[in-house]
Design goal:
Elements: E1 2-3, E2 9-13, E3 24-32, E4 35-45, E5 53-57, E6 63-74, E7 77-89, E8 94-100, E9 110-111, E10 122-128, E11 134-142, E12 147-148, E13 152-157, E14 162-172, E15 175-184, E16 200-207, E17 212-218, E18 229-238, E19 244-251, E20 254-264, E21 269-277, E22 285-291, E23 296-301, E24 308-318, E25 324-332, E26 343-349, E27 359-360, E28 365-368, E29 373-376, H1 379-387, E30 390-396, E31 406-417, E32 420-421, E33 431-437, H2 439-442, E34 447-454, E35 457-465, E36 471-478, E37 483-490, E38 495-503, E39 509-513, E40 525-526, E41 564-572, E42 575-581, E43 588-594, E44 603-607, E45 611-614, E46 622-632, E47 638-643, E48 647-650
Antiparallel strand pairs: 1-2, 2-3, 3-4, 5-6, 6-7, 7-8, 9-10, 10-11, 11-12, 11-13, 14-15, 15-16, 17-18, 18-21, 19-20, 19-22, 22-23, 24-25, 25-30, 26-29, 26-31, 27-30, 28-29, 31-32, 31-33, 34-35, 35-38, 36-37, 36-39, 38-40, 41-42, 42-45, 43-44, 43-46, 46-47, 46-48
Length: about 650
């Protein structure tokens, strides 16, 4: 139960009779000269943790506000818990005022003492913040909108070794005073186990002002050049207790936009857009935001900075054991080039897991074990980033869960200088993700067999486990006249080569048998090669070869030359033809094209031919093109050469 400060109203919660205490009811009592004047049932409440609160206000000639914690159920499970506030006349009947909180207000809430009207009333509570400490929070009640304002932290906290056992809040206008009680959680060394430690009182005071928060200014997805117009987007949150209806934007004291109409309640976020003219020299700009409710803020528009873009994510291959080789292109499309002392830092995450470990492959990329990031640095690597040519390759071995058919690995990049994170024009394109399908959902068969033939004999069989789960099986290999059995023990997505002596015939069959640990099988050789392409048949018919299988030796360093664009023409409607000068030893060519010199949001085509036709282009647009030759290295990793000079062509046809 609870009684209002003036002693004229009381609220009482009855106990429920069901197992989940769903059937509690609230009753109101109006007190007149110490006597109960009326008794009314206020509401039927389903909360098992009901804590009724009551406060007298002068609205409507005198009424009281009642608050309680409400729960909603789906079957036997609680689906929603929130605080509900309802206004009641002195007769006990409900008036027109009612609101539901969004779930932020905790169960240990109450009305702040002080304030004669609904608009001058507030609720407070304490709960654990992001810093793992207890804080006291306050929200105003807004009568017009029937809402609660954004929450305000009162800066009253307990230490890590204490817990809050109670607090109270009083208000005088927009000034709040808080008294909290903190109780030590651990006993002092050597003290009696049941001995309580002295509690500590914490005092705090805070003045609430109308303010704006989370203010940002951006010129999204635009080419920033001197003496041009850009569309500026300014975003902010109304953190004041009062709603706002308009804002005025100023730059260096000059009005850019006067009384821009935007309606935001307390706690709501919004954005405005306007056109701004740049001067002869690019510089970062500051915009003053002045709201009609008195709130002010300054938003910084970054025009000089890097702008990292991640594009073309792909999984290029799967190695024996399940590690994926993955890659993406990182480019700087900003107005400021990064220098050789700067770096690019890349974070990886998956679902709710942060700091996912990967293995960098590309030159200039290293793993920072302290910060759990890939760091790209060095003169050549940063130059490639500035040119839009840096291809980051890395290895990642996924762990698949039973209840998911695929996993997504997210990648986020940021530019860093010697003083920390660099200013970036926008962070819209600095992340991407890779989707990895669970192999057992991708392939029809778990085991794939490939015969290794030498001088007319099957000397070995390479067996690949295509699934993510380990397997032990016997495999009978038959050539029609004789057979051999090998016993296979493979981890997920692992390949091994098993020695076999068997004559080659026109038909080779593989039959799965039970694993026989007692039967002798020659020791297999691990196969650190790419997993074979998916196949629907577990049996593979070998093709005889004239040359024996060579013993593998360490691969020499692979290099590939710089590509050259011989011709770039618009020969047909909405098409361009790229003619490439052959690069000695190249396996193929990566052709990148975009409608801007920075290759922001560039598209990519792969080809092994010397001439490539690209269609579905936009008439009247100028396209910039560059080509990079590549050669396949160990494990199907692509080794790239230097990019060609950029050429351009206007699509006139």
């Amino acid at each position: 139960m609870d009684m209002s400060d003036d002693g004229t109203a009381m609220i009482l919660a009855s106990m429920g009779s069901s197992d989940l205490l769903k059937n509690r009811e609230l009753y109101s009592y109006v007190i007149d000269n110490g006597q109960v004047k009326s008794v009314n049932r206020v509401t039927c409440n389903e909360a098992g943790e009901t804590q009724p609160r009551v406060k007298y206000v002068t609205d409507n000639g005198g009424m009281f506000l009642t608050a309680w914690q409400q729960s909603e159920y789906k079957g036997e499970e609680t689906s929603k818990v929130y605080v509900k506030i309802q206004g009641y006349n002195m007769s006990g009947s409900a008036n027109d005022f009612s609101l539901d909180d969004n779930g932020e207000v905790a169960e240990n809430f109450d009305f702040a003492k002080g304030g004669d009207t609904i608009d001058d009333s507030a609720v407070y509570w304490y709960s654990i913040g992001d810093d793992s400490l207890n804080h006291t929070y306050v929200k105003y009640i807004n009568k017009k909108d029937s809402t609660l304002s954004t929450k305000y932290e009162m800066n009253s906290t307990s230490s890590e070794s204490e817990s809050m056992v109670g607090d109270t809040v009083t208000k005088d206008g927009d000034s709040f005073s808080v008294v909290s009680c903190a109780q030590p959680q651990k006993q002092n060394s050597g003290s009696d186990e049941d001995e309580e430690q002295p509690a500590r009182l914490i005092f705090a005071k805070k003045q609430i002002k109308n303010e704006l928060r989370n203010e940002t200014a951006n010129a999204f997805d635009q080419n920033i050049v001197p003496e041009s117009n850009v569309n500026v987007t300014i975003s902010f949150t109304n953190a004041g207790r009062k709603a706002l209806e308009s804002v005025t934007i100023k730059n260096n004291g000059n009005v850019v936009y006067d009384n821009y109409p935007i309606s935001l309640k307390s706690g709501e976020s919004g954005q405005i857009q306007f056109t701004y003219s740049l001067g002869k020299t690019l510089k970062n700009e500051e915009f003053d935001i002045e709201a009609d409710n008195g709130a002010k803020a300054v938003a910084k528009l970054t025009l000089l900075g890097a702008d990292l873009v991640v594009s073309n994510p792909e999984v290029t291959s799967t190695l024996s054991g399940g590690e994926r080789v993955m890659q993406a292109v990182i480019s700087n499309a900003g107005t400021t080039a990064m220098n050789e002392n700067d770096s690019v830092r890349i974070d990886y995450s998956m679902a709710d897991q942060k700091n996912v470990k990967v293995n960098p492959i590309s030159a200039g990329a290293k793993w920072d074990s302290n910060k759990k990031q890939i760091v790209v640095s060095g003169k050549e690597a940063i130059e490639a980033v500035n040119k839009g040519e840096y291809i980051l390759q890395f290895g990642y071995k996924p762990t698949f869960k039973d209840d998911a058919d695929a996993i997504a690995l997210s990648m986020n990049v940021a530019a860093y200088g010697s003083d920390g994170a660099m200013d970036e024009l926008n962070v819209v394109d600095n992340s991407t993700s890779f989707s990895i399908i669970k192999p057992s959902k991708l392939y029809d068969t778990q085991l794939v067999c490939d015969a290794i033939i030498e001088n007319g004999k099957i000397i070995a069989v390479k067996v690949t486990n295509q699934y993510e789960t380990a397997i032990k099986k016997g495999i009978k290999i038959s050539n029609g006249t004789s057979s051999k059995q090998i016993n296979v023990a493979l981890n997920g997505e692992e390949s091994k080569t098993y020695p076999v002596e068997l004559a080659v015939s026109g038909s080779i069959e593989y039959t799965l048998k039970d694993y026989n640990a007692s039967e002798s099988t020659a020791k297999p050789t691990a196969t650190p090669t790419v997993t074979p392409a998916p196949t629907k048949k577990p049996a593979v018919t070998p093709v005889p070869t004239k040359k024996p299988t060579a013993t593998k030796t360490p691969a020499p360093k692979i290099t590939v030359g710089k590509a050259t664009i011989k011709k770039l023409k618009n020969k047909a409607k909405k098409k361009m033809v790229v003619t490439i000068k052959a690069v000695k030893g190249a396996s193929g060519y990566k052709v990148m094209y975009a409608t801007n010199k920075k290759f922001k949001k560039a598209k990519t085509k792969w080809t092994s031919a010397k001439k490539l036709t690209i269609s579905r282009l936009k008439k009247g647009k100028t396209y910039y093109v560059k080509v990079i030759a590549y050669k396949k290295g160990t494990g199907a990793v692509k080794v790239f050469g230097k990019a060609s000079k950029v050429k351009k062509v206007k699509i006139k046809k």
